[in-house]
Each structure stands twice: as C-alpha cells, then as structure tokens.
Amino acid sequence: MNDGALAPEESRRSNLNRIVELGIDPWGHRFNDRNMIGDILQRTGEIKFVTESGESLDLPNADQLGELSFRDWCKQQEKGTMSGPKVRAAGRILLHRDKGKLQFIDIEDWTGRIQLFVGKNQVGEENWELIQCLDLGDIVGIDGTFRRTQTGELSIFADKIHILCKTLDQPPAKHKGLVDAELRQRRRYVDLAYNEGVRDRFLARSKIVTSIRKTLSDQSFVEIEGPTLHTIAGGAAARPFETHHNALDMPLTMRIALELHLKRLMVGGMERVFEMGRVYRNEGISPKHNPEFTMLEVYQAYGDYESMMDLTEAVIADALQALGKETTVPYGDTQVDFSTPFARKPYDELFAENTGVDPQDPAAVKAYAQTLGLAVDGKHPDVIKNEVFEEKVEDALVGPVFVTDYPASICPLTKRKKDNPNIAERFELFINGMELANAYTELNDPDLQKELFENQLEGMAEEDSMAKMDHDFVRALRNGMPPAGGLGIGIDRLVMLLTNSPSIRDIILFPLLRAEN
Description:
The protein is 32% helix and 28% strand. By secondary structure, the chain is of the alpha+beta class. The strands form 5 sheets. Strands 9, 13, 14, 17, 18, 19, 20, 21 and 22 form a 9-stranded mixed sheet that branches. A 5-stranded mixed barrel has the order 4-5-6-8-7. A 3-stranded antiparallel sheet has the order 2-1-3, with no helix packed on it.
C-alpha cells in the first residue's frame, strides 16, 4: 500500500500512476449486482464446516463454544474446509494490515463494515500488483466467499479485488479523526466517510422525515409545494433574505414561513394539506438556529389547536417507532419521556409559577422585566410579558409540555377563545427549554384578520418582515376558509432531540458557514 518514503499525496499519485500502467482505470466502472455489507453479515447461517467425508456442520455459537476457541473447535473436527456463499461487495478502505502474502483490509459501505482476507495465491499475481497500489480511503469492489477465519472472524475471502475509485487526499488519523467542529461541517464529505456515527445520524434524519410523511399521508393529508420566492414576507415575524427578479424588475424575498399559501389552498377546497420544506430567515446563528432550516406546516379543515396536539403526538410517536426507539430517549444529561398524552399547561399559569409575578398585573410584569434588563418603553404590555416568558420560563420547561392559550395580541393569525377574546387558541410545544412546535386554531374572519394585520404593522420599520400587508391573503379569506387547525414543527430541532444531537449544525448536512478565507 502506501510507500512510507514518499509524502502522502506523492505516494498516492505514485500508486495512481502504477494502476494506470497496469492498464486499469483508477476511477472504476459500473459494479453490478453487489451485495450490501449489512445483508452479507446476515448470512452467517450459510457458513458451514464441510468434513472430508462430506458432512456439513453448522458452526457453533459462543454459548456452544464455551471456553473453547473457534480454532480449537475446527481442529477437533474431522479434516475439512469452511464453505460459505459467494458474495460481491464494495466499500471504502478504512483499515489495512499487511502480513506479507496475506492482506487484511477492512471496508465499509453505508450498511456495515467487514474484513477482507486477501491472499496472493488466491487472487493471482496481476491482481496482487493492483492490491499493492491501494491506499486508505480508496473505494474497492470484491468478489469472494463469505466465511470465518481460523479465529472465527467473519470475512470475505477474496477471489478478486477491483479498484472503483482512487483517493488523492489522506484520510484523517484513525484515532484522532476529524475533530474540529467547523472543519467537520465545512468538509462534511470527510466527516460522513470517517467519523463514527455521523452517517447514522443523517440516515436517522431521513427515517424521521419519511415517517412524518407517512403519518400525514395515513391521515389523508396531501403534500404540496409552495413558492420559495415571495413578493411579501408573511406568516411569521422574521427578517427575510431579499433578492431581485431581473426579467420582471421586481424585488422578492425568500420565504420565512409556509403558512399563507397553504391557507389559500384550504380556501380552494384542499382540506388537509402540508408542506415540508426550507424556509429562510436573515437572523443570527446559534446551536438552535440556522438561517435556512426545514419546517413542516400542516393545516386541517374543521380542526382546531387541540386537533393539532393529537397530530403532534402522533408524528413524534411514529418517528420514534421508525427509529426503533422506546418512548424515553436520552438528550444530553437528561431523559425525555415522550409517553402520550403530553402535559398541557396554560401560558399564564407557567408564567406565574416561574416568575412569582401575577401575569394579569401589567405594572408588576413591567417592573419585573426591568429587573431582567429588558427594554420596556413603548412596548405593548403583552409584548413585555412575552419577552419575560422567553427569558425566564422557556428554559425551565423540561416537557414535553404544550404551553396553551397565549395572549391574543401577539398572535395575529389565531382565533380567539369564545369566552375570552384576550386569549388566543394557540400552543407551543417545549422540550428541554427548546420550542419544537407551534400551532393555532386558525383565524378565518377576513375583517378581523385585516384589522390585526394593520395593528401589527403600526409603528413597524419599513424593513421589518411583516411591514407590508398581504392584501391577497385577506382577499382569499373573503372567499371563505373553513375553521381549521394549523401546526408548524421545526424538523431540525425534532431530529436534534430524537438523535441526541446538541447542536442544529450536527443534523444539517451543510449548515451556513463564514467564507473559508
């Protein structure tokens, strides 16, 4: 393999040239009919010990061996040979042990890892020359027999090795690995290839997303694709990314939410709709925030925010099942119990519990906010109260807990309670101090919606996200939207929780980074 007399890249290029000189394409070709390593490892029952008299013996398991080694068990049998199925595998070389005329090579694909047992006499002189040109990180194919070595290790005994792709960069050191967090995110391809558990985490993300789609499909929700370029940034309070369409000579923004177009579809008679897609917010970066992230939004005609609580629980329960997990999973130093139903507690009750202040006393709330160093001048009392809630209450919510019944004045898209117009039928789901979901009983009164938009826009700076009225959305409501429940779930945060990942950047394949230079 690697010639220690040469620098790593020099040695790899030297090996590349040697492969070319052998008349072999170092970048490989189609490799048909390969078996996944994970599937190969499930075929242990096909490995037999065949005695000279032709008797086929099943291999013993650990309990049957007792204190006897596998090698000694083989010696106790009548003379014979090990047999196993012919297999064809492919993967990246992660480990190589050179024993002269024997080579032990570990390869890995995305389903597992296996040892290759490569003997010079078995593969032949020409193939052996190719094998001497291989380096760690190269991608190879193998034709051989799946069986055990004399020490009992499951291996593929090579008949032939194929080069499928030569690598020119040195992989990370085996024990230190790629440890710098920013470098791992910047070179995610290396992180995935060589750091243990990283690929599994992203495959788990895929399972979660697939599970969510199935849960919703099973309940007759239809997936749609809304526009990502908007003329007006609406559906949330956030600063958008701005762009310009040259042909139409008009300013546009990247979407900050999915909500308003999905509601337009309900007006058109699509009664259960959802979208899972990217949204973009021109805001800060933190372990819980990335400027582009994946949001699920769901709308159900003739439902309400309690319908959305039931749906949220189903989505999470099904995702856990898809991952093969129990209802209690670790997150950091804690255990999160996702047993249903989740706790449901009113906003004002939690406010009083965690601050000792009467949430219905604006003067007391304002005074308390000032002790926290929060700016209060010119702010609506409910805005001040919510800033206190975010500062003092949210981090204390271990959950899972549905925080219900928010102040109506901070929820312009939400229907009010019948018996109290100051309370909005809204919940947020909190787990370990992190907001995971947000849901409403959707407002479908066009006149009230227009009034609330106007109240919200009053005094806003022109550059703020919702400083423009979405007149077409109000016009859509005038055409009649059925009463409905609406739900938004941050997919990245859900994946964080279910895979025990401390940072959102650990579960986004390519998070936004500063320019490399």
